[in-house]
Amino acid sequence: MTKRKKKRRKARGNSGSVYDNAFRTLEGECDDLILPFINHMFGEEYDNTAVIKRLRNEHVIEKSGEKDVKRITDSSLEILFGNVAKRYHIECESKKYDGTILIRIFEYDSQIALDTAEGSLHKIHMKFPHTGILLLRESNDAPKKAVIELEMPSGDQLSYDVQILKMTDYTLDEIFEYNLLLLLPFYIFKYENEFAYIDCNQEKMDALFEVYDNIYSKLDEVLNSGNLSAFSYGAIIRLIHEVANKLTSNHKNIHKKVGVIMGGKTLEIPEVRIYHKGKDEGRAEGIAEGRAEGEAERKSLEEEIIRLKRELAELKQNT
Known about the structure:
It is a single chain. The protein has 319 residues and is an alpha+beta fold. It has a domain at 1-169. The chain is built from ten helices and ten strands. The strands form three sheets. The protein has a six-stranded mixed sheet, sandwiched between helices. Strands 2-3 form a two-stranded antiparallel ribbon. A two-stranded antiparallel ribbon has the order 6-7. Strand 9 (145-151) and strand 10 (157-166) form a beta hairpin. It is globular. Residues 1-15 have low confidence and may be disordered.
């Protein structure tokens, strides 16, 4: 394999777009997943009476001497609970933590604050959101909390915290105990450093997919208990497959089994089954309708032929 092909394969495995999109899907469409996640990250106590409002997540960042840069935040939302409204900004980061993400975080936070700025002719008030980072890859150097500090012209120091949650710190039992089901599509990152070994060891590979059998069983229990919507259940199953399919793309044997096991599980999602059942029923109905229409058309043509024969006979009699 050429170096160029190897680079392309490595880039496919490290592409962040699939992971970002997975997080945005769960954050943007699954209220029953994002609320417990925010409760855990920020120490809140929201229940299902909390109202979530998704905010604008696309901003243009002006760069001195450079073209303006369009940035899309992974999560920008407001939660109304009781009479209190709070804004949150969360980024899902697939690269290892090195601190530089804090610059991007501050850029995003500033734009979010500007979106909701209030003021008059002589004063402007900006409120920064509660901010957090979800790190997908193992990052031993990452703190549990980062700090962004600002120094005012007067010399006063202002700062705010950025909460950091590391996916690889959580066991499967903890994910279900704390109701952090939003993390399940990214659970495969815990095994990333072992992929090369797992790929050539059948016993280890079987053990990995036994973990996912356990995940699916636990998810079924949560679904049947009424603590998880069917929509969120389906989203988790589908995104487990999509994330694993991308992350394992450079490891042939694991990747193949991901398609068989996780891809097969995706086909069992209720809405997918309903879709395929609908297609089959539609096909059968179409065949039945086609037969009925064909029979009706045949009878119509037969009647037309009889009428034409009758007219032809009458014409012969009159000549």
